[in-house]
Amino acid sequence: MSRLLLAVGFVSAFVACDRDSKQYFPQPVDEYPGVVDLGNFTPLTASEWLDPAARTDKSIYAGLGENANPGQWGGATFTFQGTGGTVCVIVDPEAVFWNTSVDVRSPADGYICEDNNYDDGDLDLEVGLSAYYNGTPGVSIGNFEQVYEDSLGNEVVFEANECQMIGFRGQAGAHAGRATPEFCAIDTSLHPGRDYTVLLRLWSVPADDFVVHYAASVVEIDGDDCSDAISAVAADPECVLQNEGTGEGFGALEELYCNGELDTLCTEPE
Amino acid sequence: MSPRGVLFDMTSATRAALLLAVVAQACTYDEQLPQVDIRGTVVVPRAAATRYIVDDRTGQEAEVVDARFIGPVYLGAYSDIRYDLEAYPHPATGPIIGGELGNTYPYGGGTVGVFDFACYTSTLCKVVTGRYTDYASLLDFFSNTLKQPITDEQGAEVQSPDYFRTSCYDLFEYTEDNELLFLAGEDGLDFKENADGDFEAEFTMWRVNYHAGMKVWGWMDSPDTNFDFTTCDPSNGQSFTQYSATFTTGSSHIDLLNYPSNYIDIGDYVVNEPFELTYEDADAFRDAAPTFTLVYDFLVEK
């Protein structure tokens, strides 16, 4: 009996060695650097935004890997010039939008489409005047914190990130969670023609390939709210910029979701 | 010396004296905190406490002078006060971010009177502490002076101080009047008429970050004709759910001192001449223990 136990323990030890959990430790990917500068971007006009083909053609579709320098932020930056009006800036990282079956808050019984838990990344959006951005585009990721010296020479650190998103509890400075699109309106009326920097801060990469693919855009809007521009083209922000993921079947699944057909397809009839 | 040590060789009187000296030493320890408490007197002009009200019986307009018209009086310590930013003196501001006004980055502040919820939603954002002695004073002012009787949640006019008290105790689960901040008592009223006919009150700005050269400035929020105040946020404050009624108790906006011009309106009184603190540092200020008088004499007209 003791020999049997010894043998079982020996086998168990080897099985345990088979799991190194490497997938939870993202590694840099050569083709997708962790710090990227995408250059200058021309905001879409309202008519370009409403045209699905133009919206896709003129928006950014790219991928971002882990920063090769451990402990340093990764992310992508691009600039646009102040239009003199208000613009809406939006980023949609892959993927997560059909995870009804794993949503613990409102699980759907009998949901048969298994979600891929390893294809979700996350990007956090920050936007401000380029003059206030303290990172080095393409080299290192910074933020929009600057120092104001008051009349008495005292230094006050202030936040010049103008992309204010409101959380569920009404608090400013919130960010959307895992792979959820983020968007905010930027009033450029005081600085027409000045450069604004958009920072897509890398929060997490998907565990399956360590690259977060995403779509991003800037569009001129009326008013001071992104909601109208988004609802004009899609019922769900996830569907504004489609095909941001590159995984097999991603596009087809997203199309089903955006057409409202996914739940019907994935739910077993009672 | 005994084998037990020197303390045991002392008389009890000596030991007591030594202990007292140690305790007294602790009392003189100077922490050299960079924050100071600034004390003084605010003066608001008589006009801030004056309204012209039509007498129901005679139909004639009569002048009414009453300290209960005085709204919350705000004080802030700033790096500078400028006269070219607004139509009234205003603190210097930092960079304008995203089209919003510049932040004034105050070093500290205080008030004489704050908004308090007087137990009925009909009083929301209308009652300031330090203005009313008791329930009767509040009922009288709203009914007879403002002609806006306080009503309970069923819409009935509140006429009895005892009913008022019962409602408050029931809502807040209190057992004594002194738990209600809006009841100041006879000795707790903030403002008193001075020899010039103006109204003055003492103030304390607690724990202000001291910077030599900083200036103390402020404004008084005057109520509008409906007795509403621009500095009160009705959606702020404590939340209550009473049967089918859900309401918040109202409170000051959270950024009054950072963005004063968002809230200063026509009819408010602003300090025209701030006082400047020229003491070298916080310790020098504490040693001098000065008191100041701040006059709210600039009427905002546009």
Can you tell me about this structure?
The complex is a heterodimer of chains A (270) and B (302). Helix content of chain A is 17%, strand content 27%. With 270 residues, chain A is of the alpha+beta class. Chain A has one domain (29-266): Jelly Rolls (Sandwich). In chain A, the strands form three sheets. In chain A, strands 1-3-9-5 form a four-stranded mixed β-sheet, with no helix packed on it. A four-stranded antiparallel β-sheet of chain A has the order 2-10-4-8. In chain A, strands 6-7 form a two-stranded antiparallel ribbon. In chain A, a hairpin with a 5-residue loop joins strand 6 (145-149) and strand 7 (155-159). Chain A is globular and about 80 Å long. The mean pLDDT of chain A is 88. With 302 residues, chain B is α+β, with helices and mostly antiparallel strands. Chain B folds into two domains: 1-30; 35-113 and 190-299, no CATH class. Chain B is built from four helices and 18 strands. Chain B has helices at residues 12-27, 135-145, 161-172, 282-288; strands at residues 35-44, 50-54, 61-65, 73-78, 81-82, 90-91, 108-112, 192-193, 199-209, 215-220, 232-233, 239-242, 245-248, 251-252, 269-270, 275-276, 291-295, 298-299. Chain B is globular. Chains A and B meet through strand 7 of A and loops of B.
Summarize the structure.
The complex is a heterodimer of chains A (270) and B (302). Chain A has 270 residues and is of the alpha+beta class. Chain A is built from 6 helices and 10 strands.
Rounded to the nearest angstrom, the distance between the terminal CA atoms of chain B is 84 Å
Uncertain residue ranges of chain B: none
* CATH-defined fold name of chain A: Jelly Rolls
How many domains of chain B? The number is: 2
What's the gyration radius of chain B in Å? 25 Å
Largest interface: A-B, 17 and 15 residues
Strand ordering within the main sheet of chain A: 1-3-9-5
Which percent range fits the helix content of chain B? Answer: 10-25%
What is the radius of gyration of chain A computed over CA atoms, rounded to a whole number of angstroms? 22 Å
DSSP helix fraction of chain A: 10-25%
Query: Which architecture of chain A per CATH?
Result: Sandwich
Shape estimate of chain B: globular
